[in-house]
Amino acid sequence: MNVHPLLKLVRIIGAGHHPAEKREAMLHLVEVAIEPENLAHELSQMRTWLDHMKFQVIGFRQIPGANICRVDFENEREATAFAQAFAGKELNRTVA
Question: Domain 25-95 sits in which CATH superfamily?
Answer without folding.
Answer: ACT domain (3.30.70.260)
